Amino acid sequence: METLRIIIKMFLFFSVTSILAPFYFLILFVLYRWRCAVGPELLRFYSKICLTIFRINVVCGNNYSRFSRMKKNLLIVSNHSSFLDIFVLSYLFRAVFVSKSDIKFYPVIGQIAWLMGVVFLKRDSSKERYRLIKKISSICSNYRLVVFPQGTTSRISDKRPFNRGIFKVLEFSPEISILPVSIIYEDDSEIAWHTPQTLIENAFIVFRKKRINVEVLIHQPVIYEKYSKYSSSQICNIVQDIVLSR
Q: Could you say which of 7, 186, 187, 199 would form a disulfide bridge with 213 (CB–CB 3.0 to 4.6 Å)?
């Protein structure tokens, strides 16, 4: 029975992805100028299907209805446990994502992500980081944006530290509010993709699950006016403590 479940989920997931990919590529190529507006809507539609395939039950806190209505000036900062996080947050917030630059070179996925307006963060060049921080602050002034400052996936209990660079956006756009979000899977120790697992090994664990329950805690925002005297490193530590101390 378990083997059959895995086969069915894999078939549905790859079938949906294969069918939608060429249509998404065409739509985003034609509407490239408006990719930051169109991309999140397309990703949300795909995410909703994937949440159904994986039988993921998402439970949100009381703050969701309040912040889901904010269309811009919102930087959503979350821990990163699994590739499922993207589906969960895309479904909830219809946001533009910040991703590590490696994703850009993934076949098909990388090209569609680029067309969707995903911001690829390259961490090995200070000049490039500065340019990207300015770009991110500009995008965030008009859209909702999601970032995983841990840089990679891990169990939330591992408390992997945040990279502080992204928090410099407040220096360019103090009107932006940071919204700390905690993604907590009921079986986090199994669902989370962590070393020394490969992505394939972790994916099989996810496919094997009958149902996945995830709680999304939406905390109070961190507003620059209140923390204007703090450095980006200090603000990073404040947000990190909020997100990781569930």
A: 186
| Whether the Cβ atoms of residue 95 and residue 145 lie closer than 8 Å to each other | yes
- This prediction has a pTM of 0.91
Distance CA 164, CA 178 (A): 13
CATH of domain 2-244: 3.40.1130
Q: Tokens in use for 51?
A: 């949440």
Residue 206 tokens read as: 């996810």
Region for 125 from its dihedrals, namely left if φ exceeds 0, alpha if ψ lies in -120 to 50, beta otherwise: beta
Residues in the chain: 246
pLDDT digits (tens, 9 = 90+) for 182-241: 999 998 888 998 888 888 888 899 999 999 999 999 999 998 888 888 888 999 999 999
- Neighbour-count burial for 57-78, b at 16+ CB within 10 Å, e otherwise: ebebeebbeebeeeeeebbbbb
- Cα–Cα separations (whole angstroms), residue 198 to 82, 185, 195, 203: 12, 19, 7, 9
State the pairing for strand pair 212-218/177-185: antiparallel
Q: Report the candidate in 174, 208, 175 with the shortest Cα–Cα distance to residue 191.
A: 208
107: nearest Cα among 21, 16, 200, 39: 21
Domain ranges of the chain: 2-244
